[in-house]
Amino acid sequence: MYNVTPGLALAWESLLHVVIDGLRRRGWDDPMHVVPTPDDLMAFWRAPDLLLSQTCGYPLVMALQSAVRVLAVPAFALPGCDGMAYRSVILVPEDGVRSLDALRGSVAAINQDHSQSGMNALRHTIAPLARGGKFFSQVVVSGSHMASIAMLQRGQAAVAAIDCATYGLAVRHAPKLVAGVRQLQTTAPAPGLPLITSRQLTEAQAQDLQDVVLSLTDTAALALQTLSIDRFHAIGLPDYAPIMAQARFAVGQGYPTLG
Description:
Blueprint: H1 6-25, H2 41-46, E1 53-54, H3 57-64, E2 68-76, E3 81-82, E4 85-86, E5 88-93, E6 107-110, H4 116-126, E7 138-141, H5 145-153, E8 159-163, H6 164-173, E9 181-186, E10 190-191, E11 195-198, H7 203-214, H8 216-219, H9 221-226, E12 229-234, H10 241-252
Helix pairs in contact: 4-10
């Protein structure tokens, strides 16, 4: 979920290979492969042979509860990230507005309409300011957080909410990709993006996998340093209740759809 640069993508892939090696040492002899990022992530996350992936908390609580087990969450050593929790950074162009209310009637860019960091957190923040269920003149789905930032840079959008890990990694590893934008404020915190596996795994298999993931601080320290990850925390589905609470708050404010 955080392949901001090719080097970071390689670091994530190396973690997956370390996990496979750890499971091999525990006696797993099933075929296990690292696969390219699929086009249809929802179908991939629901696949019965899914071993390990990372999803977003919003689709987790809205659509994936019956299909996956929640194993762990990374703790990033980046501004806006705090242990198991993370926030979105609300970004505007450098010469953009100075307050949330001044964004009324402007264009917002979101990465996906099922994103916690790009959509739900922003909706939760804007909800008290909405009137008649409206605030923005238009909401454009960019396809990714980095594409949303590019829209800000090109003047195609006035605001975007970017999770603190994506933004922090871009600042550290590819600062040109975030040039010309600035932070307006941050959103309320929520649990970070969970590592998941299929519910087809047995309890014993899921425990093995979780143990291997939690031990990455010892077995893959260099990759974790590159990714600015301090450690992985064990976490479960109930920990993601704050995400549903943010969605319900927006609905209660008469703002069920970001718009």
